[in-house]
Amino acid sequence: MDIQSLSQVSPIQTASVNKLQTPAQVTKDFGSFLSDALNQVNQAQVDSAILGDKFAAGEIESIDQVTVAGLKATNMLQMTLQVRNKVIESYQEIMRMSI
């Protein structure tokens, strides 16, 4: 066994304690994540409506684009509603807990 090759292995780097975030920073990050997600859902709805209008005006010949955009927007909205329902359900469950 060659011991020289073992000396070339770099030491394991540990996570720094200074990288921990405060609760306020985590809340801000989570809030911005939710805001971005809702903006994406809204943008998908707007894009679907625009494509529908363009198809009705005859500017788009392929209904495939309109259908895919509509289904994408519908799925995103349904997922958002399911996440909202789970959050409300979790909140209600926490409020029912006795201390």
TrEMBL record:
Keyword annotations from UniProtKB, A to Z:
Bacterial flagellum, Cell projection, Cilium, Flagellum
Biological process, per Gene Ontology? bacterial-type flagellum-dependent cell motility
Q: Which PANTHER family does the annotation name? A: FLAGELLAR HOOK-BASAL BODY COMPLEX PROTEIN FLIE, PTHR34653
Q: Name the lineage.
A: Bacteria, Bacillati, Bacillota, Bacilli, Bacillales
Q: Which family does it belong to?
A: Belongs to the FliE family.
A cellular-component GO term for this protein = bacterial-type flagellum basal body
Q: Which HAMAP family match?
A: FliE
**Species for this entry:** Brevibacillus centrosporus
Q: Which domain of life is it from?
A: Bacteria
User: According to its UniProt record, where is this protein located?
Assistant: Bacterial flagellum basal body
What Pfam families does the annotation carry? FliE (PF02049)
Q: What is this protein called?
A: Flagellar hook-basal body complex protein FliE
UniProt-recorded Gene Ontology molecular function terms: cytoskeletal motor activity; structural molecule activity
